[in-house]
Automatic annotation (TrEMBL):
Keywords: Transferase. Residues 388-537 form the Carbamoyltransferase C-terminal domain. It comes from the Bacteria. InterPro entries: ATPase_NBD, Carbam_trans_C, Carbam_trans_C_sf, Carbtransf_dom, NodU/CmcH_Carbamoyltrnsfr, Nodul_NodU. One of its GO terms (molecular function) is transferase activity. Belongs to the NodU/CmcH family. This is Nodulation protein U. Gene3D superfamilies: 3.30.420.40, Carbamoyltransferase, C-terminal domain (3.90.870.20). Its EC number is 2.1.3.-. Residues 2-346 form the Carbamoyltransferase domain.
């Protein structure tokens, strides 16, 4: 059985699952230097992605489209050979809490001169399926809770077993986009005109709050206004909760909440306000989870999957893991909508066979190529041992290897790597990436050495939890230490077959240090570089390594540190 999952809206993607194995998942932002959060607007895109991977539409047994906005059903306007067509799909949230995995059947999917029928499942259930089916819990056939918190919904908790899924409840009445909206009212991303859903602010705020201090009196203001606007017995709060299916009404209510907060917090600095709001929401999350679980009859072993856009918040993930409420916590590398095409395909699997484990690899994105290298670059074969010497000489390298990683974070397949021993390196990387000075650069570290350098330093292959840099290492690896002493760590096993593992081991032999700086290889506001030529055209790093070939810019060096 070959299933093709399709995400048409933002973070558009196409995934193929064959007999329970993920064959590939191609996110649109990772093709042709496309913008972040790229939609699929033309159905020819689906045909082209299938063809690139040796398939035609007729080779697919089932097409599944991820659900989207709508209380009863969603509607997609797309183009087929230049002509507009309308496709209907499932809504954002399931309509039946007792039977969440209910499909909407559709027809009229026009692909390569053929017309195909398709299924569609609620968007939130795609998050549940992508998180649970990729977890070790599914592999062991163990049940798990699944928290889904997206921008336009309250945090929703589900209980998943191999045999099915049921909705447990909402933890509290605040949409996930409230975190990004806070940045539109306070701090460096403040905007007078606050329209639309800005998807790029939340991750930046997570870095910015390191400049601030959490104050209880600020949190008390947020608590009072949260009760009045969202959670209490006021007419305003009742109206807000009753409008939970209206995105515009929810977003307006959130901005009203922050307008009221701003009038009460005039003497406070924006960094303290945002740090305190982050802590306030973290407290809501842990308390809400505790309250919702209380009295819920579950097996002795408690597992948790986290999905939805808020699953990218490493500090909240760490708080839930440290709460003691769960024995194990899993966050996939694509908790946001970059995993929705996979989730759509997994929903179809679950509808037939239950929630079974998916055989998958994080390196299942588009393949890399050299492309046409522009003038002013020379190329030569380069082993990983030789590349380690370049890095040990304090020279950054764009590192492109095999298939791209899934999800929004560079995990050694589409990375800019550099030595972490120079304090100037973080500033240099932020400068060339056009990022603010307070943005962190992540460490990529051999897994067995991570506990020596970080607390807890536990395996974290997808960069989804918070770790504190141990004091004795802060001066040794200053480029990867965030302003608050933490690090967004990625760990790599020595037994990994990916080239990044061998490179880290060769670098360790040369320097005695088992980690490197790691930041994403991309143009500002765009997805990963699709090929070496794109990295050369960017030109901000003098060395580009692509599957055994080192391209070196001729002329003055970009960085001397």
């Amino acid at each position: 059985m070959r299933i093709c999952g399709i995400k048409l809206t933002h973070d558009g993607g196409i995934a193929v699952v064959e007999d329970g194995r993920l064959v590939f998942c191609i996110e649109q932002e990772k093709l042709d230097n496309n913008p972040r959060y790229q939609h699929i607007e033309r159905l020819e895109t689906v045909v082209a992605v299938l063809a690139e991977n040796g398939l035609a539409p007729r080779d697919i047994d089932r097409f599944v489209i991820d659900g989207w906005d709508g209380e009863i059903q969603s509607e997609f306007q797309v183009l087929s050979k230049g002509s507009p067509i309308t496709l209907n799909g499932a809504p954002y949230v399931e309509r039946d809490a007792e039977n969440p995995l209910t499909a909407c059947q559709g027809s009229g999917l026009m692909l390569d001169n053929g017309v195909f029928s398709y299924e569609s499942y609620p968007h939130v259930l795609g998050h549940v399926a992508s998180a649970y089916c990729t977890s070790s819990f599914a592999k062991a056939e163990e049940p798990a809770f699944c928290l889904v918190w997206d921008g336009c919904i309250f945090p929703r908790l589900y209980y998943v077993e191999p045999s099915g899924v049921r909705f447990v409840g909402c933890l509290f009445p605040m949409i996930g986009h409230a975190y990004a909206a806070a940045g539109q009212h306070f701090g460096p991303y403040r905007q007078e005109l606050r329209t639309g859903w800005n998807l790029g602010i939340a991750g930046k705020l997570m870095a910015y709050i390191a400049l601030g201090v959490v104050h209880e009196h600020i949190m008390n203001v947020f608590q009072e206004l949260y009760d009045y606007h969202f959670a209490g017995d006021t007419d305003l709060a009742f109206g807000y909760r009753n409008n939970s299916h209206s995105e515009d009404a929810l977003l307006t209510a959130v901005h009203d909440f922050f307008d009221a907060s701003a009038s009460r917090l005039i003497p406070e600095t924006p960094e303290d306000i945002l740090a305190s709001f982050h802590a306030f929401v973290e407290r809501l999350l842990v308390r809400g989870m505790t309250s919702t679980l209380r009295g819920y009859s579950v097996p002795e072993t408690r597992n948790l999957c986290i999905a939805g856009g808020c699953g990218l918040n490493i500090k909240w993930n760490s708080a839930l893991r440290a709460s003691g409420l769960f024995d194990a916590v899993w966050v996939p590398p694509f908790p946001n909508d970059s995993g929705s095409a996979i989730g759509a395909a997994c929903c179809a699997l679950a509808a037939d066979n239950g929630f079974v484990h998916l055989d998958w690899s994080v390196y299942s994105g588009p393949n890399v190529s050299h492309g046409k290298v522009p003038p002013g670059w020379q190329s030569a074969a380069c082993s990983l041992k030789e590349l380690a010497s370049v890095l040990a000489d304090n020279k950054p390298v764009v590192f492109l290897a095999g298939r791209a990683e899934l999800g929004p974070r560079a995990l050694g397949g589409r990375s800019i790597l550099a030595a972490a021993t120079s304090p100037e390196m973080k500033d240099h990387l932020n400068k060339i990436k056009v990022r603010e000075h307070f943005r962190p650069v992540a460490p990529i570290c051999l897994e067995d050495r991570a506990p020596d350098m970080f607390d807890p330093g536990t395996p974290d292959p997808y960069m989804l939890f918070d770790h504190r840099t141990r004091s004795e290492w802060k001066e040794k690896i200053p480029a990867v230490v965030h302003l608050d002493g933490t690090a967004r760590l990625q760990t790599v096993s020595r037994t990994s077959e990916h080239p990044i593992a061998e490179l880290l081991m060769e670098y360790e032999k040369l320097t005695g240090i088992s980690l490197l700086c790691n930041t994403s290889a991309n143009l500002n506001g765009r997805g990963f570089f699709p090929d070496a030529a794109a990295a050369c055209e960017w030109g901000c790093v003098d060395h580009v390594w692509c599957d055994g070939l080192l391209l070196t810019k001729t002329g003055p060096s970009q960085f001397e540190g």
